[in-house]
Give the backbone structure.
Amino acid sequence: MTAPSSARACGSPAGGPGRLMRILVLLSAMLAFCPSQCIAKATDRLPDVELLPLSSGEAPMRLSKAFQGDLALIVLFSPGCPSCEAQIKGAEELLERLGPNPPFTLVPIATSYYPVGFTQAVWDSWTVKSKGYAEKEEGLFKHLKVRNVPVLIWASKDLAVKGMRRSPTSQGELRQDLKKLTGL
């Protein structure tokens, strides 16, 4: 009978500490190259989903029609998310500081998980100034595999993803993103 290896004698799983170490190194490498902001690749295009305006009397529209310029900051949110309201207000404050012709449009979009009437009631109770939207179907959230909100997406008029962040995101971080994207 041969003596068991020292790794097995100490109660280590089959494969010993070397296997565990390789797994940990692999996980840390993945996190280094894909931080928490990484949900989609910068080369991704967003689906041109149908949006329901959270203002009464407005007709549904496509995401591409919600842009008023060449760049948009899309904030994916849920009506049950207090930090989402704060994130939208922070983006609105940045827009105000940038003056009358800001280089981007703010496009807040709610998940279709909740009924539109409920989302609209919550939106109306928030003290935000932006026009809000809700997805008609879960296309954008599914495409990006969004599980937690808010998620901030910088996108061009052709719906190409230019950058993406998860909250909390400060106005300073949004300014840095804007500087990289526009040079302003």
